[in-house]
Every structure is written in C-alpha cells, then in structure tokens.
Design brief:
With 408 residues, this protein is α/β, with parallel strands linked by helices. The protein folds into two domains: 219 residues, Rossmann fold (3-Layer(aba) Sandwich); 156 residues, Glycogen Phosphorylase B (Rossmann fold, 3-Layer(aba) Sandwich). The protein is 42% helix and 16% strand. It has a seven-stranded parallel β-sheet, sandwiched between helices. Strands 10-9-8-11-12-13 form a six-stranded parallel β-sheet, with helices on both faces. The protein is globular and about 65 Å long.
Amino acid sequence: MSRILFLTPQLPHPPHQGAAIRNLNLIKIAAQRHEVALYSFVRSPHERQAAEVLREWASEVRMFRAPKHGLAGRALRTAFSATPDMGRRLSSPEFAAAVQTARADVVQAEGMEMAQYLSLAQPGSRRVLDCHNAEWVLQRRTFAVDLGRGRPVGAAYSLLQWLKLRLYERRACQDSHAVIAVSKEDRQALCMLDPRLRVDVMPNGVDAGFFTPAVEPPRAETFLFTGALDFRPNVDAVLWLVQDIWPLIRWHLPEAELTLAGRAPLPPVRRLHGRDGIRVIPNPPDIRPSFATAGVYLVPVRAGGGSRYKLLQALSMSLGIVSTTLGAEGIAVADGKHVRLADDANTFADLAVELARDRQQRARLGRAGRDLVLAQYDWPVLAPRLWAIYDHLLGRGSARTGSPFALA
C-alpha cells in the first residue's frame, strides 16, 4: 500500500467551501486504496477539532498555524518580487521542515498556493500538483472584468498577478510528476503554458446522495445565488446581478425575492440585505435549505476558472438554472437541455423570468440536470479516475530533478 501525503491550504473539514469539498473527497477516494496523510494550515484553535473527523481517512493529520501577512505587506512584497502573491502568502518554515522529513510515496499539493512545497519532498517521492484553477486564466479574466467595470486598482492587481502567474504556474507544472486539472478547459489552459505537459482531468464532483431534490415544491419567484461571498469573481457576479439583472427581473415579477447565501460576505454584499427583496445569509451551516426553497438558481459569473460546485449542487437538486457560459464552464451541460445560458443582462433576466413562470420547463431541466450528475459527477463515479492517475504515477520510472522551486 502506497502512502499519499496531501498538502492543503485549509482543513478540508467541514467542507463548506469549494477547495475543501474537493480536497476532502479526494482524500476519501485515495484512502480506499492507499494510506493517506494530511498536512494542513489552520487559522483558529477550534479548527483543530476537525482533526478527529479527518482521522477516519488519514492515518496522520498534522496542522500548522497559517502565516499572517497584512495586505499592505503582501502588496509590497509582491510588487518587488517575480513571485506572485499566491506563491508567497502561505510560506511557512515550519510547514516546509515537516514536508522535507515526511515519508510518502506521493506528495500532492492542493492548489497553486501549496506548489512551493513540492520541491521539498524527499527525493523518492512522486510530486502531484492538483490545479483547482488555471490561475493565470482566472486573473486574466478578472483583469478584463475589473477594467470593464472601471475598477482600476483591482485591474492593476490582476494584471500584475496574471503576468507573474503565467511563469510561476508553468514552472510548477513542469516540476511535477503529475498535473491534475478539474476540466478539459483548464487542461487546455495549462497546456498552453507548455505543450509538452501531461495533464490529467479529475473533475469536481458532488455528493448526489446528500444534495437530493426537495420534496415540497418551491416558491417559483424565489431566486438564489450561492458561493463564497468573499471571493472576487463571486462578488463581481453578485454586483452585476443586483445592479444590472435584478431590476429587470423585478420589473416583470415585482414580488420576486433573491437569496444570496455563502461564506463571509464582504461589506458590499452585506449591505444588500433587505433591499429590493434581497436577503443575505452569511455562513449557512447547511446550504440545502436555500436550494430547497428556490424556484430558479442563478449563476451570473463573469470571471474565475475551474468548475463550480454551486452549479453541480443545483443540478443535483434538480433546480431550474440560468447561467452565463463562463459560469457553466467545465461541466457538460447543454443550453436548453440542462440549463439556460445567457451572457448579457437583458437575456439573462428574460430567461430567469421565463423559468420562474414555466413550471414544466423547470421540471424538465431539473430532471436532466440530476441525470447528468448521477452519470458523470457523483463522487463514486469519479473515483476510478483518481485511482488511475496514482496507478500510472507509481508505475513510472524516472523522476525529474533540479526543481526551480524553493520556499519563498
């Protein structure tokens, strides 16, 4: 039995955020065939209680205090360094020393923040980089959105990170024995950095037994957006929805209500609560009640990358969905079959109103969305993909050496 060491930027339990959901489920899948260890950062003492739960799948769980770097200090260091902010903000000598002495057949870094530690693995270990996003593409898209919306400070930051991440991400992938992407679109973006890269796809998944369709019919004119409300692409999505789309929906449906539910809403999102039928639910312990009471689910995402758990959860719960093309990227949905797609505010609002008024269309889309999840995105269906990556990796001969990466 091989030993796989996962390196994560935050504890994967409780799985209330996209990265944690993916990391926890990859650990569960790996543990079915391998011994698993977990080294993770924590930010508060109460998080350590989760270690007992994680020991159900991991024989070793080690937690390290996440370094604290103020925004001003991070900005200054980033401005005068070729290393992007993402490559520096979780730099920890204590964590680095632990990785250097860890016994593992495979060391797997979850996300670009953890890539800096792969070069410190012992010489016999195979290095795996699991790319939760093609980060350079995410920053390029965020730059374009910020520039178009007249946000020069955000645009300048994203431009700087985009240019630095192209180099950093390429080097990280080149130095790994295996690179994993969450979608074929992200795979293509990573291969643009170096066409010689071998990149496997392990999609994001959903627990279809947990996210099941509601028994009681929802109120048709209740609309829902979910996601981390401190994540820049999600905040942009909310602001675009509220400023440009929601007034159009309310013109047709004056009694319509909008719920915004998710982690740590930033002040611009919190201030929306109570305005124009909008309700903000911060840090819901269970997101399913919000899904169960929604008539139409909205994904007005214009930036970001990877694939979106919010959409997979909504599909699994058989909701009628309106999304931008980018919001549905990485998931094999078809417009008119599983979801409705629109990329401008007028069309997006028209489709949302149409779905709210058309129960049969919502039911048809919902059934097709649930069937898609059961066939392609339920975690047990995806498990053999990860096992195959490990089988191939552990059967290979030579390892690359001479890493250009070191602790920032």
